[in-house]
Write a structure and sequence with these properties.
By secondary structure, this protein is mainly α. 56% of the residues lie in helices and 5% in strands. Helix 3 (44-59) packs across helix 6, helix 4 runs parallel beside helix 11 (223-241) and helix 7 crosses helix 10. It is globular and about 50 Å long. It has two domains: 23-134, Zincin-like (2-Layer Sandwich); 136-214, no CATH class. Strands 1-3-2 form a three-stranded mixed beta sheet. The chain contains eleven helices and three strands, in the order αααααβββαααααα. The protein has helices at residues 16-21, 37-41, 44-59, 61-72, 79-82, 113-132, 141-154, 160-165, 174-190, 195-210, 223-241; strands at 83-86, 94-97, 102-106.
Length: 243
Amino acid sequence: MEEGEAAPPVAEEKSGEEEDDFGYRLFPDRNKKPQSFLVRSLFTFHNRCQLMLRMTLDTNPYAQLLLEAMKQSGCTVFNDRHFSCENCDGCVSGGFDSATSQIVLCQNNIRQQSHMNRVVTHELIHAFDHCRAHVDWFKNVKHLACSEIRAANLSGDCTLMNEIARFKFGLKGHHQTCVRDRAIRSILAVRKVSKETAEKAVDEVFDACFNDLEPFGRIPHSKTDAKRAYKDFQNRDRYNANL
């Protein structure tokens, strides 16, 4: 979970008491009618969000690898269909809405390109998991925990520089600790479960999900690592095509 970012607001129903259980309270624009293009174009936040999103999709190796992997898995991502720039409550940065297969980007809270890169990557990992696996986002907290572990581990959320920016400095096993803590926070943000329940779910699946490095094949600790992973992924695809 990106700093100030909610886990996926996954919900089959968006009304009544169940809405709060699935985190939709953090994404109020999910329940509003779409605005006209003219109205949306008047808002600087929306324009800035769209420009930063395009920059991420065109140039960020984390996002490019995930988009290619999803395409190969039969889940091609389209900018206009699968991304939505919206206003969000609090300091939430983004989420994955599995009910609509959309990534929500909080246009009022994402102000820097580097932040957009991390949020898009984090949520694309959720979308990739949704595409490749039968994830029960609604009833199985361990499924949610697994995807949150993977997102924190592979998106760059827990890089040394990001942790230093949060005034958290390295200790032995620091990366694993960061991944675990952020996964727990993500669950608590969108599920009405106790901290003990969230911790138990994360601990039970941590080893398996932390070591599931698809589609990167490695933990990309930097953009350079991500570029290498993307190149390896493309070469792997060409190799498999020639078998």
